[in-house]
Amino acid sequence: MLSTSLHPGAASSAVIADLVEEEKRSLAFGVRRILGNAVWVAAPAIGGAYLSSGGGFTALLLSLAALSAVGVAMLAALVPETRGSGLPPPSLYSLRGFLSKGFSCLCLSSLFTLLFYSQIYTLLPIYGREYGLSELEVGLLFSISGATVVALQLPTSIAARRASLATASALGVAVMAAGVCGIGSQAASSS
Amino acid sequence: MTIGENLFFPSMEALAANLAPEAERATFLGTYILASGVGWGLSPLIGGLIWDMTGSPRAPWLLTAPYAAAFLTLLALLQGYVRSGAHSAPQRT
Q: Is A190 within the bounds of a domain?
């Protein structure tokens, strides 16, 4: 339920950034990832078990709508308004901030990273079929990934607090790139 | 790889939040999420094209290295701007 209201997006990220002091923001964003991935891992199993036990699609979708409504009610009741009343409204003036070199570098670096990394979620299932993995095995890989986030996000975030955010990001990209290159090398040795 | 994600995603989002002026934090974070989404969106197209054009399933994966190098270069530039104090968005008066 909470994951619905905590889904990564500009408003929820800004609320978290408003509520949490600067040096703890990375940890807070990490905690949100745990909730999101816990739901990601559990929800298909719960839905599948419900349908397997004879439940129908309509009842399932209606209960999801009800759960979402509870999430919205909790958001309204429990999360305070964080935008300061004295702050000026956003305007096109912000464009100058977007064009600042630091922020542009940040956006582009994220773009380049996801250009290679999100292939995991799209090409990996095709690649898996090519090299003899079954649908179940490919599905298990994604489930294990979600479970790994739930199990290890908090320890990783706590350990990463000793490093700067840029160092932690660079280390993360190095690990991700090594993994993706490893998949390519595996393909090379299998072919 | 998932541990790499655990390091990367929260740290980058915190960097974006820290670079944004308070009054425009949501807009900046939205822009950061948009840039990330462009990467997510283009990746399958580029990966598929590379796979089909080269005929090699390993090619899209092995081309990770230049992307990662681009990331590290941009991150180093960002660090330079942060150290020089030139990262802050102009504040309205």
A: yes
R_g of chain A computed on alpha carbons:
20
Tens of pLDDT, residue by residue over A143-167, are: 888 889 999 999 999 998 888 898 8
Q: Please check whether residue B57 is in contact with residue A133, taking contact to mean a CB–CB distance below 8 angstroms.
A: no
Q: Tokens 């000026």 belong to which residue? A: A88
Q: Do B32 and A106 touch (CB under 8 A)?
A: yes
Q: How far is A36 from chain B (nearest CA, A)?
A: 13
pTM: 0.81
Do A191 and A109 fall within a single domain? Answer: yes
Q: What percent of chain B has pLDDT over 70?
A: 86
Compare all CA atoms of chain A with the CA of B71 and give the residue at the minimum distance: A109
The domain tally of chain A equals 2
| ipTM, interface predicted TM-score of the complex | 0.82
Burial (CB count within 10 angstroms: exposed 0-12, middle 13-18, buried 19+), residue B52? exposed
